[in-house]
C-alpha cells in the first residue's frame, strides 16, 4: 500500500491506450510478485500448521483414514510420565542453555572487541563451529566424550590422574554434555551479533562518560548494556527458540539410544520425530507439535513483553 | 481434495510417460539403499528381463531412514511400487494399512512355501494368506577375534555361556587406570544384544519371551530376570566389557578392541574389510544343558496393493523369480545373506563353510520375534538394561517394568 501512495499519480492517458492506470498496474505487479511466496508459504507452511491442529484430535497412522477421537491424544500426553520427562529436558536446555550461551557470547564479544592482535582470525575461529554441519560436529563431540582410551577428554583426565566421567552414558551428565556442544555451536553467531551491536554504540557516549569519571564497570552497566538491549532481545529470542527446538545434536550424539540414556536427554522435537516417523502415530505427534508450538509462542511473546517493559 | 489434486497430477504424468512404453509391462521394484543389495538386484533384474522380454523392471531406491515413509506416502498418492522389499516386522502395519496384497496362491501355493522355505517365513502369514517371501534370511552368531584369542592362548570360541564368561575374562585387558583397552565381550543392547537377550538368553534360562502368538509378553519371570542378571553381570560383576565402549560393539570389534561380539549376517560385508586381524564365526553359545537358540529375521519381497491386471501378473512373475533358487544363490554371493530355501541353504558346501556354516545351523532352531514397533520395543530393552546398569535397579524389578511397557506397546498396536 505504501508503494502505491509513494508514487506520484500519472494520468492514465499517458500509458498509450492501456486501460489500467500506472498505479494499478504497479500494484498488480507488486502483488503478482508477492503472491508467489505467499502462496508458497500458505501451501507448505501455514496449511500444514493449521492442519496439525486438526490432526491432533485424530488417531492416524498415515495409512488409514484419520479417525476423530476428541482430546484423547492430549489426555494421553498429559498422563504420560515420559512426556513430562521430555518436557523437563526441553526446559532444562532452554533455561540453562540460553543464559550460559548469552553470557559467554557477550563476555567473549566484549573482550574480543578490544583485541586488535589477530582480531579477524580469532573471530573466524569462534564463528567456525556455527558454519559446520551440526551432525558432523555432534559426531566429533560424541567421540570426544567416549571412555578412555578412545575418548580425548577422558584420556586426558586419566593422564592427570582424575576419575573418568561417563559423559553420554550417565543420566546426570548426558544432558549437560550435549548442551555444552549446542552452546559451543551457537556461540560464533551470537558473538558476531553482539560485536555488531557493540560497534553500533557511538564512541562519544564512552568519551563523555570517561570525562565524567565513570569507571569501566559503570560504563558497562549504564551505557553498554542498556544500549545493547535490542541486540540482546533478538539473541534471547533467537537462542531460546533454538534451544526449544534442539534436535540435531541430541539425535546425532545418541543415535544408538535416541534421547537416552533412559530418556534423560530427549527434547520435545525428538519425541515428536519418534512418535511420527518411528511409531507412525501421527495424531499423537500432532498433539505434541501443538504443545511445542504453544510453548514457543508463549516464550517468544513473554520475552518480547518483558524486555520491552523495562526499556 | 488434496488427494484428488494429486491424483490429477499423477494421471497427467502417467499419460505422458505411459505413451512411451506401449506393449511391454513396466513394473517398479522398491528397496532401500545398501550397496551390495542394489547391485545384486540390478543383476537379478538383468537376468529376469532376459528371460521375460515383455516385462521391464525399474528399481527405485531410498535411504533406509526414509524408506517406510516413502512407501506410505506413495501409497497415499496411489503411486506405490508393484513389488517392494519390507522388513518382516512391518507386515502387520503394511497389511493393516493396505500397502501390500496377499500373494496369488496359483503362483505361490502354500504347501510349496511351507515345504521348501525355512519355517520362519510363517511370520509373513496373516489370516491364512502369505503376504511376502524372502530371498535371504539373517541370523546371529558370535564373532571372535582370532588374533586376540591366540595371544591369550585360547584355542577356539566358547561353546557354552559359562565358557563365554570365562573366555571373555581371559581376553579382557585394562590399562593402569583400570580403563578397558580391550573388552572380552561387547555389551551393546542397542546393537543385536536385545535380540540375543529376548530370543536366546531368556529361553536358555528356562523361560519364554512371549506367548506363542507374540501377543503377550511372558518374560516377567524368574527366567527373564536371570537372563538380564547374566547379561548385566558381564559389565557389573565379571567386568568383561562396558556399554558404550568405542561407542558401538561392532566398532570396537572392527578396531580390534573387542575379542567377541554378537552380530548378524548383515555385518559380514562390513567386517570383511578388516585387515589387521583374522576373525571367525561361531554358533551362539549353548546353555549348560546344551540348549541353543537364535534370532532370525529377513526382508521379504511383497506385491504392492496398487498392482492390478497385467502389472499384477508381471509382479507375481518377478517375485517368483526373486524367490527362486537361482536368485538366492546370487544373493548369497553378492550380498552374503543366507538363502531362504532349505535346499539352497543347507548344502554340504554351505554348511562346511566356516563363515556361513554357524549362521545356517542356527536357522533350524531360530525364532523370529513378531514386532509391532521394533524401534519402540528395542528401546524398552535398552532402558531395562540401563536401569540396572546406571540406576542399580534389581533385574527382577527392571524386567517387570519392561514387560509392562512392552505389553502396552503391543496392546496399543492391536
Automatic annotation (TrEMBL), chain A:
Subcellular compartments: Cell membrane
A GO BP entry: transmembrane transport
InterPro entries, per the entry: ABC_transporter_permease, MetI-like, MetI-like_sf
Name this polypeptide is given: ABC transporter permease
PANTHER family named among the record's database cross-references: ABC TRANSPORTER PERMEASE PROTEIN, INNER MEMBRANE ABC TRANSPORTER PERMEASE PROTEIN YCJO
Source domain of life: Bacteria
Species annotation: Limimaricola cinnabarinus
UniProt KW Translocase keyword: no
CDD domains: TM_PBP2
Residues that span the membrane, as ranges: 28-47, 91-112, 124-144, 178-201, 227-247, 285-306
Gene Ontology cellular-component terms listed: plasma membrane
Protein family (similarity comment): Belongs to the binding-protein-dependent transport system permease family.
UniProtKB/TrEMBL annotation, chain B:
Span of the signal peptide: 1-24
Alphabetical UniProt keywords: Signal, Transport
UniProt KW Transport keyword: yes
Record's GO cellular component terms: ATP-binding cassette (ABC) transporter complex, substrate-binding subunit-containing
Superkingdom of source: Bacteria
GO BP terms, alphabetized: maltodextrin transmembrane transport; maltose transport
A Pfam family assignment: SBP_bac_8
Any one GO MF annotation of this record: maltose binding
SUPFAM superfamilies per UniProt: Periplasmic binding protein-like II (SSF53850)
InterPro entries: SBP
Entry similarity comment: Belongs to the bacterial solute-binding protein 1 family.
Record-given protein name: ABC transporter substrate-binding protein
Amino acid at each position: 500500500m505504501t508503494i502505491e501512495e509513494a508514487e506520484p499519480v500519472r494520468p492514465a492517458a499517458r500509458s498509450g491506450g492501456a486501460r489500467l492506470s500506472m498505479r494499478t498496474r504497479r500494484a498488480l505487479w507488486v502483488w503478482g510478485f508477492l503472491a508467489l511466496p505467499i502462496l508458497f508459504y500458505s501451501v507448505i507452511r501455514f496449511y500444514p500448521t493449521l492442519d496439525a491442529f486438526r490432526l491432533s484430535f485424530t488417531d492416524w497412522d498415515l495409512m488409514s483414514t484419520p479417525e476423530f477421537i476428541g482430546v484423547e491424544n492430549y489426555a494421553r500426553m498429559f498422563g504420560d510420565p515420559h512426556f513430562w520427562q521430555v518436557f523437563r529436558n526441553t526446559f532444562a536446555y532452554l533455561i540453562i542453555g540460553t543464559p550460559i550461551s548469552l553470557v559467554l557470547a557477550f563476555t567473549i564479544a566484549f573482550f574480543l572487541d578490544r583485541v586488535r592482535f589477530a582480531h579477524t582470525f580469532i573471530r573466524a575461529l569462534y564463528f567456525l563451529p556455527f558454519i559446520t554441519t551440526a551432525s558432523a560436529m555432534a559426531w566429533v563431540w560424541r567421540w570426544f566424550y567416549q571412555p578412555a582410551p578412545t575418548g580425548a577428554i577422558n584420556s586426558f583426565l586419566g593422564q592427570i590422574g582424575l576419575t573418568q566421567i561417563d559423559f553420554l552414558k550417565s543420566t546426570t551428565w548426558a544432558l549437560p554434555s550435549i548442551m555444552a556442544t549446542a552452546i559451543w555451536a551457537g556461540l560464533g553467531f551470537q558473538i558476531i551479533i553482539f560485536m555488531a551491536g557493540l560497534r553500533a554504540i557511538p564512541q562519544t557516549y564512552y568519551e563523555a562518560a570517561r570525562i565524567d569519571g565513570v569507571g569501566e564497570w559503570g560504563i558497562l552497566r549504564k551505557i553498554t548494556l542498556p544500549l545493547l538491549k535490542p541486540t540482546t532481545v533478538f539473541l534471547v529470542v533467537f537462542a531460546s527458540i533454538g534451544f526449544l527446538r534442539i534436535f540435531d545434536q541430541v539425535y546425532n550424539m545418541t543415535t544408538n539410544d535416541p534421547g537416552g540414556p533412559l530418556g534423560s536427554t530427549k527434547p520435545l522435537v525428538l519425541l515428536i520425530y519418534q512418535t511420527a516417523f518411528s511409531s507412525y502415530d501421527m495424531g499423537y505427534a500432532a498433539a505434541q507439535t501443538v504443545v511445542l508450538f504453544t510453548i514457543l509462542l508463549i516464550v517468544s511473546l513473554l520475552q518480547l513483553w518483558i524486555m520491552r517493559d523495562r526499556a | 481434495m488434496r488427494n484428488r489434486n494429486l491424483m490429477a497430477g499423477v494421471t497427467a504424468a502417467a499419460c505422458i510417460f505411459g505413451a512411451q512404453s506401449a506393449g511391454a509391462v513396466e513394473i517398479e521394484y522398491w528397496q532401500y539403499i545398501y550397496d551390495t543389495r542394489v547391485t545384486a538386484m540390478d543383476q537379478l533384474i538383468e537376468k529376469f528381463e532376459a528371460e521375460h522380454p515383455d516385462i521391464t523392471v525399474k528399481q527405485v531406491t531410498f535411504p533406509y531412514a526414509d524408506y517406510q515413509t516413502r512407501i506410505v506416502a506413495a501409497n497415499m498418492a496411489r503411486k506405490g511400487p508393484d513389488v517392494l522389499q519390507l522388513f518382516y516386522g512391518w507386515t502387520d502395519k503394511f497389511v493393516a494399512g493396505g500397502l501390500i496384497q496377499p500373494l496369488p496362491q496359483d503362483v505361490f501355493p502354500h504347501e510349496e512355501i511351507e515345504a521348501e522355505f525355512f519355517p520362519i517365513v510363517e511370520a509373513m502369514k496373516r489370516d491364512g494368506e502369505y503376504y511376502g517371501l524372502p530371498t535371504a534370511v539373517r541370523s546371529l552368531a558370535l564373532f571372535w577375534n582370532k588374533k586376540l584369542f591366540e595371544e591369550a592362548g585360547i584355542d577356539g570360541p566358547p561353546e557354552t555361556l559359562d565358557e563365554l564368561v570365562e573366555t571373555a575374562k581371559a581376553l579382557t585387558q585394562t590399562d593402569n587406570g583400570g580403563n578397558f583397552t580391550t573388552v572380552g565381550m561387547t555389551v551393546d543392547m542397542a546393537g543385536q544384544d536385545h535380540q540375543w537377550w529376548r530370543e536366546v538368553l531368556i529361553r536358555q534360562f528356562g523361560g519364554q519371551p512371549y506367548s506363542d502368538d507374540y501377543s503377550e509378553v511372558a518374560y516377567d519371570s524368574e527366567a527373564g530376570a536371570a537372563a538380564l542378571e547374566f547379561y548385566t553381570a558381564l559389565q557389573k560383576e565379571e567386568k568383561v566389557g562396558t556399554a558404550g565402549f568405542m561407542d558401538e560393539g561392532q566398532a570396537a570389534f572392527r578396531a580390534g578392541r573387542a575379542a567377541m561380539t554378537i552380530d548378524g549376517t548383515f555385518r559380514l560385508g562390513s567386517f570383511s574389510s578388516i585387515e589387521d586381524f583374522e576373525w571367525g564365526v561361531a554358533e551362539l553359545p549353548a546353555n549348560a544343558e546344551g540348549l541353543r537358540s537364535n534370532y532370525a529375521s529377513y526382508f521379504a519381497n511383497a506385491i504392492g496393493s496398487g498392482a492390478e491386471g497385467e502389472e499384477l501378473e508381471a509382479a507375481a512373475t518377478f517375485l517368483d523369480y526373486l524367490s527362486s533358487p537361482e536368485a538366492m544363490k546370487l544373493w548369497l554371493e553378492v550380498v552374503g545373506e543366507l538363502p531362504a530355501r532349505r535346499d539352497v541353504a543347507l548344502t554340504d558346501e554351505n554348511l562346511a563353510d566356516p563363515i556361513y556354516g554357524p549362521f545356517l545351523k542356527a536357522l533350524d532352531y531360530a525364532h523370529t520375534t513378531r514386532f509391532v514397533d521394533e524401534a519402540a520395543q528395542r528401546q524398552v530393552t535398552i532402558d531395562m538394561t540401563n536401569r540396572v546398569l546406571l540406576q542399580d535397579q534389581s533385574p527382577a524389578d527392571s524386567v517387570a517394568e519392561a514387560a509392562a511397557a512392552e505389553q502396552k506397546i503391543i496392546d496399543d498396536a492391536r
